[in-house]
Design a protein that fits this description.
This protein has 585 residues and is mostly helical. It contains 29 helices and 2 strands. It has 4 domains: 80 residues, no CATH class; 170 residues; 160 residues, no CATH class; 34 residues. The relative contact order is 0.10. The C terminus is likely disordered.
Length: 585
């Protein structure tokens, strides 16, 4: 019975929703008909006459106050709507309407229906869109202590958001910890240190982990057998503690490099030991996986330190050796670090060889891959490229290939050209990026702008051709040209990743919501009425009364005229004039 009753209620609700959706005109005329039928009991005629009489007796000061107040309120709403749109990219009134009024009017959640009725192709595109909106670790991220903190000391601004640092803390816990850390006191301390929000607390925990390791090797040696003494003497220090100190405490790249070298010595010993024991059980396998991540991270950061300190060839060698030693660890995207270093050496043939391996249709793309390929093709023709000559004789094959490569790169990430052409100011790149988003564009342009400037004419070719990409992309962006459709979630994620003082680049450019335009028009119109009423009170009073008379019926207008004439006779004590025969008839 209960299920039958619930089903009946759902059917009634569905019928009501259907009626409101398709028969709104019938409902509207029905309401008008009821008002007409009940016009006598409701005394609509008398009430309307009283309202019209009251409006006719209003002074111009009332209209000035009314229009001024309306203009002030609509102006405040306009300012709030504009601020909310600039901050969150949507209209507050529209969002409230969709979130609260739509369910009351029978709005249906499109997710369940679309998911059940979508085809396989739509499902694949949705999965691709979700994967492209995933936040990735920035392979070229800076050092917190030596670079991010120095920026804060100089400018007083925080270059990293809380969301970005929280993602980094999650990455550290994933890469640098395992389930058996509680068996070693130093690793147990570092496991808690990665979860600390306060930077000073993390640094203190790292020092404590190193001190505990030293005290343990000194205190426990006399208390155990000689066969175990040799093992504890070889016990390495905590590598993850050195990593944290190099990332956050070191104030220069040279200091960070020294700490990473100590971390490499400790991490290499742990890796070799766990490599021998990895097949003894799942616990040892987890330790080996953790030690591998630690070792790869240390070597990659050492290569980045060498690149920062000007030892670019040494950095390239370290990166190549690391990619040969651990070819399956693609999550660190070391090839992007290698591409940047090779471009600094102007080894364009080696860059092309790396691109031939990683610019594959089956591998995920990035702005570094797409724009580096475009740079190499632009380099072949950019020094002799001229827009005037190209418009007269047409594009050659090499120039066409360069333009197509630029269009491909711009379609993947349309935010990059404005930073390369210095149409927007750069900021420090975040520790995490969103592919095809503004954060990835900043991270790419921050390191590769110098490489584009080094190639003569490359920026000129980019300036002349990059906007032509948008004529090739279907609009609205339901389909892509060379890639999947541009995801709609980039703006929200970029606002979380990038600091508040940066103006986030939005693509496609959103049109102003209807309510902002409506409130702007309302504010302007009421302000104009208030000004005119204040300057010309008599004329605006006549205009207001004329507008009121237009909406009044002929009978009500005659009654108003009679009442006004009688009141005028009473005030002046004029005897009533005899009515003519024509007026009596």
């Amino acid at each position: 019975m209960a299920e039958a009753g619930a089903g009946f209620v759902e059917q009634l609700k569905a019928c009501a929703v259907w009626s409101w959706t398709y028969l709104w005109a019938v409902w509207f005329f029905l309401v008008l008909f009821l008002v007409y039928v009940l016009r006598v009991p409701l005394r609509i005629h008398d009430n309307w006459s009283a309202v019209s009489m009251f409006l006719n007796t209003l002074t111009p000061k009332f209209y000035v106050a009314l229009t001024g107040t309306s203009s002030l309120i609509s102006g405040l709403i306009l300012i709030f709507e504009w601020w909310y749109f600039r901050k969150y990219g949507t209209s507050f009134i529209e969002q409230v309407s969709v979130s609260h009024l739509r369910p009351l009017l029978g709005g249906v959640d499109n997710n369940s229906s679309n998911n059940s009725n979508s085809s396989n192709g739509d499902s694949d595109s949705n999965r691709q869109s979700v994967s492209e909106c995933k936040v990735w670790r920035n392979p070229l991220n800076l050092f917190r202590g030596a670079e991010y903190n120095r920026y804060t000391w100089v400018t007083g601004r925080e270059p990293l958001t809380y969301y970005d640092m929280n993602l980094s803390a999650q990455d550290h816990q994933t890469f640098f910890t395992c389930d058996s850390d509680h068996l070693r006191p130093a690793d147990a301390i570092m496991q808690k240190a990665w979860r600390e929000r306060n930077p000073q607390a993390r640094i203190s925990a790292a020092h404590e982990a190193l001190e505990i390791n030293e005290i343990r090797s000194r205190v426990e040696v006399p208390l155990i057998a000689s066969s175990t003494i040799w093992e504890i003497k070889l016990l390495p220090k905590c590598a993850t503690a050195y990593i944290l100190l190099a990332e956050e405490e070191a104030t220069t790249i040279a200091e960070a490099e020294k700490l990473f070298k100590q971390a490499l010595k400790a991490g290499d010993g742990c890796y070799r030991r766990s490599q021998q024991l990895q097949h003894h059980g799942s616990q040892y396998e987890a330790q080996h996986r953790r030690d591998t991540n630690v070792l790869v991270y240390i070597k990659r950061r050492l290569a980045m330190c060498a690149r920062r300190l000007g030892r670019t060839r040494e950095a390239v060698k370290m990166m190549r050796d690391l990619m040969k030693e651990f070819p399956l660890l693609s999550m660190f995207n070391i090839h992007e670090n290698l591409l940047e270093a090779l471009l600094e050496l102007q080894a364009y043939a080696d860059v092309q060889a790396v691109l031939a391996k990683y610019d594959d249709i089956s591998l995920p793309k990035s702005a570094t891959i797409c724009y580096t390929a475009a740079l190499l093709k632009a380099r072949a023709v950019s020094d002799k490229f001229s827009p005037e000559a190209a418009s007269r004789r047409g594009l050659s094959t090499a120039e066409m290939n360069a333009v197509e490569a630029i269009h491909r790169a711009v379609e993947f990430n349309p935010h990059v050209p404005k930073y390369l052409l210095e149409m927007k100011s750069l900021i420090l790149p975040p520790e995490h990026i969103l592919k095809r988003g503004d954060s990835e564009a900043i991270a790419y342009a921050f390191f590769h702008l110098a490489h584009w400037k080094r190639v003569e004419g490359a920026l000129n070719l980019l300036h002349c051709t990059w906007e032509g990409t948008f004529r090739m992309i279907p609009y609205p962006l339901e389909k892509g040209h060379l890639f999947y459709p541009y995801p709609i979630c980039t703006e929200t994620a970029d606002r979380e990743l990038l600091p508040s003082f940066h103006e986030v680049s939005v693509y496609p450019k959103k049109e102003l919501p209807f309510f902002i335009l409506f409130t702007a028009g309302l504010c302007s119109f009421t302000a104009m009425l208030a000004l005119l009423t204040h300057q010309f009170p008599e004329l605006m009073g006549v205009f207001a009364k004329a507008m009121i008379d237009i909406f009044c019926s002929a009978e009500v207008r005659d009654w108003n005229c009679k009442s006004t004439f009688m009141r005028f006779e009473d005030e002046l004590d004029i005897p009533p004039a005899p009515q003519s025969q024509h007026f009596q008839n």
